[in-house]
Write a structure and sequence with these properties.
Blueprint: H1 3-12, H2 19-24, H3 29-37, E1 41-43, E2 49-51, H4 58-68, E3 73-74, H5 76-82, E4 97-100, E5 112-115, E6 123-126, E7 129-132, H6 134-141, H7 147-159, H8 165-175, H9 183-194, H10 200-213, E8 220-228, E9 231-239, E10 244-249, H11 253-258, H12 260-272, E11 276-281, H13 282-287, H14 289-299, H15 305-308
Parallel strand pairs: 4-5, 10-11
Antiparallel strand pairs: 1-2, 3-4, 6-7, 8-9, 9-10
Helix pairs in contact: 5-6, 6-8, 7-9, 8-9
Length: 310
Amino acid sequence: MNLEQVTLLARQNHGVLLPNSLDDAGITPRQRQWLVRRGVWRRLPNRVLVISGAPDTFEMFATATLIMVSGSVLSHTSAARIHGLGELGRHHQNEIHISVPPGSTSRANGAVLHRSPMERADLTNRHGFAVTSIERTLLDLGAILSERELRRTIENALVTRITTFARIEAAHLRLGRQGRKGSVRLSTALRTLDGLPPSESELEAQFLDLIANAGLARPLGQVTFEWAPGERGRVDLYVPDDRLIIEVDGRKFHARLNSFERDRRRDQLAMVNGLRTVRFTHHQVFNSPGEVLEVVRALTPRSNRVLFAP
């Protein structure tokens, strides 16, 4: 790799000169300093090299920060910007937020550094940047945005369909119960956005119409199982050939949150007795019917085997 190739690669990375490309090209520290003195390159405040003439963009500083802090990912408002959630207020526009594991000793000159546990489900790559997932980002934003800003950001994510209410709720249930910062404000925003769900009968009727219109086998309704002493397992819908329980949940967010442990226990008892359980919220049934049908088809191959015949 020669100097021209290094420069071309830098232009593809928002003007940032990648350290490994400089090493591959055999450009020594002394040569780098000479190029800086000649005005060919320049150093950012965090000492990362960029090509002269490259504009000082958010993407440039984000790339440079990720290079400087090993194992970091863009998070909070920076991740929101990469995901297309907006710039989130004038006072957040120029901030670079990154997150690292709790044990990291890294420092971030010129950036806001957060130390927090991150699971694989919390991480993704978008537009070439390592970032927190949309759902994890929304939870993190709860720690630094006002309730109004957070609610508006969630609404934007839902309207643009880059996530769903169910996915945000699942992330909150997984992460918020660990006492993570932002979980209380996210919970409040979700309660506000949940609105008035349909009645149980309306939701079940909508789900069955969805199944019928797709030509799928009709599940049995309101089936009761004797799973364990003192535990009567009445379920919304049941597909016997595939031993699949289907629960359609019309409860408001706070009610689903409060019954989270009990629902998981019922699902576990069903599994012990050889039954699988799939749950759909009213948001999914009414707003994402295609995704619901895709899941039902995948989980009911015996009942709907005619549909899959060649």
